[in-house]
From TrEMBL:
It holds the Pfam family 23S_rRNA_IVP. CDD domains: 23S_rRNA_IVP_like. It comes from the Bacteria. This is Four helix bundle protein. It comes from Neolewinella xylanilytica. The lineage of its organism: Bacteria, Pseudomonadati, Bacteroidota, Saprospiria, Saprospirales.
């Protein structure tokens, strides 16, 4: 699995599940939130998946791979901030908040593992870190 396609990575699968659940949960958000909270929470959660795809494409260069994973981690934290606001504004229940936040924490742990163990995701190459 070390060099498998990114869609087989557990981090991608869980991030996609989170983004899908956030989309469904945000459908009843008020219309006045359409271009703010609703849009932001959907974008940040989906961005984790998109950045993992980009990381896969850049996996031949460890610094690029690490940078994309850092973007994923940041987007996941942003998603948690939007979940805080959704709870504060009573757009989601405490149960929804806790469930989505727990899933986001799982995603974060997986992303951190990937960042700390890139050798499991990056093909070995002598030219891997050679300056361009």
């Amino acid at each position: 699995m070390a060099y498998s396609h990114f869609k087989t990575w557990t981090g991608y699968a869980k991030a996609r599940t989170l983004a899908t659940q956030i989309f469904a949960t945000s459908i009843p958000f008020p219309k006045e939130e359409r271009y703010s909270l609703t849009d932001q929470i959907r974008r940040s959660s989906r961005s984790v998946c998109a950045n993992l795809g980009e990381a896969y494409g850049k996996r031949f260069y460890s610094k690029h791979f690490a940078a994309k994973l850092t973007d994923c981690i940041g987007e996941n934290f942003e998603t948690q901030v939007w979940l805080d606001f959704a709870l504060d504004c009573h757009y989601i229940t405490l149960d929804q908040y806790e469930s989505l936040t727990a899933l986001s924490e799982e995603v974060g742990k997986l992303l951190t593992y990937m960042h700390q163990n890139p050798h499991q995701y990056i093909p070995r190459s002598k030219a891997n870190d050679r300056p361009h």
